Each structure stands twice: as C-alpha cells, then as structure tokens.
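Q&A log
Question type: sequence-to-structure
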Amino acid sequence: MAIIIPGRVTTEEIAERIGRFQAAYADNPLVKGIDFRVGSDWDGDPAIFVTATVRKKSADPEFLKLAQEMQSDLLHLAWTDELGIHSYLSFAS
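Response status: OK
Response body:
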C-alpha cells in the first residue's frame, strides 16, 4: 500500500524523482547504493530520508566533494523543495 502525503504527492512520484538521483550515481565507484524512505521529520513535516552507502566515509577530500555534489544533486534532480517536502541526506559505509 502506497503512502500518500496528504494534498501533496504519492510515494510513487517520490520514487520516480529519487530514481533520477540514484541513476546519476549508479556508475560512481564511491557509491555502493542509495536508499530512501518517506516519513515525517521531528516537526511532523513530510520528509524524504535518503541514505547513500559509500565505500569511503571520512574527511577524505574525495568523499567531501562527493557529499557536496550529492546534496546539491538531491535538490536539483529530485526537486524535493518543489514538492514542499524536506529532504535529508545521510551517509553510511
């Protein structure tokens, strides 16, 4: 059963948008995978929680550059702000 964010968007639309983000990093050797879940943040607002599993997670300059690019691309490829949904990006190794 799909989760629907009242008056906003379905999880299918979110999955499609996050799919663009996932596709952008599918061939990146530092990224093992990207998962997401839809829920509410600590204020109760609709949110998308994206977890990128990476091969390196440290203060390594290569990882820091990747993290900055991914944060920017999440907003530009998934257009979460346009939907009125907060997006949160975290990393796991």
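Response note: Residues 4-92 form a domain with the Alpha-Beta Plaits fold (CATH 3.30.70.1350).
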